[in-house]
Amino acid sequence: MTRTPMGNERHNVELKSRLRDFVGARRLAQRLSGAAPEVLRQVDTYFRCTEGRLKLREITGGPAQLIAYARPNNTAVRTSRYYLVDLPAADSLREALTATLGVLVTVEKVREISLYKNVRIHLDRVTGLGDFLEFEAVMSTGDSVAAAEALVRDLSEQFGLAAEDLIGTSYSDLLLAARS
Fold first, then answer.
1. pLDDT tens digit string along 95-117?
2. Is this model's pTM higher than 0.85 or not?
3. CB 46, CB 55: distance < 8 Å
């Protein structure tokens, strides 16, 4: 992914952690959002690429998305740069990307999404890995990165995340590490 920002590039501020108490986190997310979570079954197919990450996300009963993104691999609150392309159907694109780039790994998960202010709270049950919590503060033009980082840190404290549970890589990296 090019380092020069382009017109369609988006940003978010995020933090990911292993989750020790899924039910308690679900209760807190629901209280903060004031609504029941949206539950999605997702399959993310990661393709081999030379820079950043490229994945095809297929959502049961919904549209597919091609997502190209780059972010530092560390456990701190961090900024992610990404491009998102909505797709009406994924089969042909998956076949073409598989033939040209090759599949790196496939991640299957059930994701519960709650919204608190501009932060998506993801409770993820990832096949082969376990339970995780992810915060994604979605940035709009003019939003303060510092304010988003502060909000994510505040949520981290509210959810009682421990430093040793923070994850600095993607689910794809964790699955690849588990296989070796």
1. 999 999 999 999 999 999 999 99
2. yes
3. yes
